[in-house]
Amino acid sequence: MRLILTTCLLFLAIGITFSQNIKYEPKDLYFYRYPLKPLDKSLKTYSYRLEDLGNDLAAWQRDSLQRALHIPGYKRVRENGDVQIELVVSPLTITNKEVNDKPVDTEKNGVKSVMHQYWYDITYSFPMKIRVVAKGQVITEQDLAGFFTTQYYPQNRSSLSSLQQEYNNDYSFKDGLRYERTEQRKAEVRNWLFSNYGYGMAGDRVNVGYVKDKKGEYADLLKAFSLLYNAIAGASKKIDYLNDTFKQQVNEAIGIWEAALKEASEDKNARIDPKVSAMIYGDLALAYYELNDFDKAEEWIKKITKAAAFNTEQVAFELKPGIADKRARFVANGFVNGVQPDIIDRGFAKPSLAKEDMAPSVSEPVVVKGGPRDYIVITPGDTMDVRFIIPSHDVMPFGDSVWMEDEIIVLKDNKRVEIYPKEIHGYSYKGVFRQSLTWVKDMNTSPWTYEHKFCQRVLSGAIPVYRYSYVTTSMHDRTQKIVATRMYYKKGDQLLEVMFLNFNRGVSKLVADYPDLSERVKSGAYQREDFVRIIREYNEWMKNKTKG
């Protein structure tokens, strides 16, 4: 009992709060995952081969890609494996090179002139194909995306001749592109093979809910929370975790929650009010998910969507894909819902998950029924539907064009019209809203020099957040230009860059009127990469506070 009480107090101290009395404790764990496309059980070994059609991969790049040709749960042999993996790498080819310019009007001693800033918008291909063969039969041929865009910025941008000359003499440019794509492909190939054919431990994150118990009214729910959380924590990295102890702990927690739901009331002052009920639904869905009873897990999640608790809906939304994925894998392997199969340790590896793979999306596209609507906002509240003119897809790299931050071109009355950030409030193109923002670029001039840009709006609300993209030199290759980003936020009418000497102290002050969140930030529960996540929670809290 003392151990349970100590554990619960610890969770209360470090838990993540979404509302006034409901908290969710996250838990990262590894679970044994089955493949989506299981191979014949008689197959035990695999071999691999890399075919470099262009013969332009460096030795280390070949080795790096070959290490990605791995199927956890199978033994690798030098050749003639039961399963044969082939990665076919086509040569990297520049398919299009388009000149672009950003002229700037200058005046000196009464003489006007134009300063050119040339660069190349480049499209290139670097396709790869994964081929899987078993017993002499091709099982799968998976083509990986082959076309990409980038920009080439010379040191001297003032003339077309200098642009072309630098490009012709830059022998490392294609090597840089090949390096970048090879590094990306390693993880892509490895994860694809593991997900479809491998057996092994995969990362997962779950959230267990409990009530912040100030008056000692929720001892039963805290006990259920502790039972489920400890069961899940103990199950991590175990191949066969569904033992009698695990089932006993989880089923005892389920019994406590089901008993509590008999008190459920729509009265906001009730012990089991709608928010607490929603939290219990979420915990029950998680409990059945861990028991591999996907039908019951989905039944409880459906109840959550009807509950007036945004925080629990968000947690449920994050659990849904896990339930669907695990169900699909069980079906593919012929397992009955709720029945854990006999597991054979196939010598699996424990792959690591990149942090960004589990991070929430930060974009909030504006979407209306029937698809995203393209429009400009002349002034707040004054919108106009327009048709955008995009000269070429090559100027839209990574789906977040640097070009569209400086100007947009629309069709108005069958005429081509160029619009700049100083002229309108913002615009929405393909569901992404960009707002006109202004900041000081150079304080050494008199008057100061200001920069005006259309910046992507990442978050709306009490503290809106924006993303600004710009071209800079790659830290990995000083000869290569890349697109980087900076984040800005608005507090009142003041636009500030997301830059804090002491992140936790600075952001805790920013959200100080939400004391619980401010205290968690100050205590170190978040890192710099969590800024959008923090502000999203703050904005939602402010929205609910305003409604109340």
TrEMBL record:
InterPro entries: TPR-like_helical_dom_sf. Gene3D superfamilies: Tetratricopeptide repeat domain. This is Tetratricopeptide repeat protein.
